[in-house]
Amino acid sequence: MLSDVTSEQVTAALRTFIAERDWEQFHTPENLAKSIAIEAGELLEEFQWAPEFDADRVRLELADVLTYCYELADRLGVDPEAAILEKLEITRRKYPVEVSRGRSAKYDRL
Amino acid sequence: MLSDVTSEQVTAALRTFIAERDWEQFHTPENLAKSIAIEAGELLEEFQWAPEFDADRVRLELADVLTYCYELADRLGVDPEAAILEKLEITRRKYPVEVSRGRSAKYDRL
Amino acid sequence: MLSDVTSEQVTAALRTFIAERDWEQFHTPENLAKSIAIEAGELLEEFQWAPEFDADRVRLELADVLTYCYELADRLGVDPEAAILEKLEITRRKYPVEVSRGRSAKYDRL
Amino acid sequence: MLSDVTSEQVTAALRTFIAERDWEQFHTPENLAKSIAIEAGELLEEFQWAPEFDADRVRLELADVLTYCYELADRLGVDPEAAILEKLEITRRKYPVEVSRGRSAKYDRL
């Protein structure tokens, strides 16, 4: 079952893929940040003219964004899921339940 | 140790955060795709004028992209890491080692 | 000579193109903002792995970004070039010559 | 009246602004492409959670995208409006009226 996979195993698989192709030279943090933005644009294209979407296409585009995110996390020496949880604590404090409930306003306009 | 965290646990933490604030109404797949692109832009801003970067700032911006990616994966009923591995198999076939080694060209220009 | 073209003429050409295809229904401000981000990603792809670029390809990708920008300006009832000059005055005040000369720092870190 | 402004005058104003601050060194084509994507993300943020928008905020964010687009056009030695019209001819051929009328499908799926 794939859901048993750990971040370490995914990162190891990505490292092997990159190393086999000698692509470390291209995958600098700056180029990975560009790649994340490029792939985020392709994901958004699935929703360009309507909110309806093709789940298979969206899943594969999302995977491209995630792949470059995991690679960048690896360059930073960071566990991706630990980074999510670290940031969630910060966001929790910026958006206390009592003031943000049911409101989409940005914290500096709450 | 945070690296023992599973995707399921991260997803559960994000669900609780969203539910407490009654934000499911805003976090549609389309709005999450927009949010991923927006956060990808903020991450890229850390590299706007030079390849040098502040690792702490980059980690926190990357976490924002990852957070919305995990939320979108949850809306799709997909494990994020399984999606990365599924796509890696496809990419592996599009970029065979022998033709892509040391080259950054897109597969349709290899 | 194309450089004699005015914003009004470009906007009129775009309006005709859209109306002939009955596309006004899709080109809402929100969808145009998504389209600008999508095309900005395609433009960035020309620079994904290296600063070197193909001028012809970049020109055509840049044109796509500009096209949706002009359409959005038209929806807002704004002249695109007037908007640039309006914003330039604001930016001029945020980045006084004496403090910003030769520095790429954002105004809030100057 | 601002609508009498020409692309050349806007480009000249941007050149002066950049030269006064000695910013040509930062505004390489690659960095301008990144900047366009970054500002496109900020524009999209105005539509993050709903299609409703604040016209003043959108106009100013759109101006930022346009500004970097005009700068990149200048680096390429291209008139921005000529580029729009050049691309419009190409797009016209990819989307003939008879097959694209009232449909938002991409040309390769028409």
Automatic annotation (TrEMBL), chains A, B, C, D:
<dbReference type="Pfam" id="PF12643">
    <property type="entry name" value="MazG-like"/>
</dbReference>
<keyword id="KW-0378">Hydrolase</keyword>
<dbReference type="GO" id="GO:0047429">
    <property type="term" value="F:nucleoside triphosphate diphosphatase activity"/>
</dbReference>
<dbReference type="InterPro" id="IPR052555">
    <property type="entry name" value="dCTP_Pyrophosphatase"/>
</dbReference>
<dbReference type="GO" id="GO:0009143">
    <property type="term" value="P:nucleoside triphosphate catabolic process"/>
</dbReference>
<dbReference type="InterPro" id="IPR025984">
    <property type="entry name" value="DCTPP"/>
</dbReference>
<protein>
    <submittedName>
        <fullName>Nucleotide pyrophosphohydrolase</fullName>
    </submittedName>
</protein>
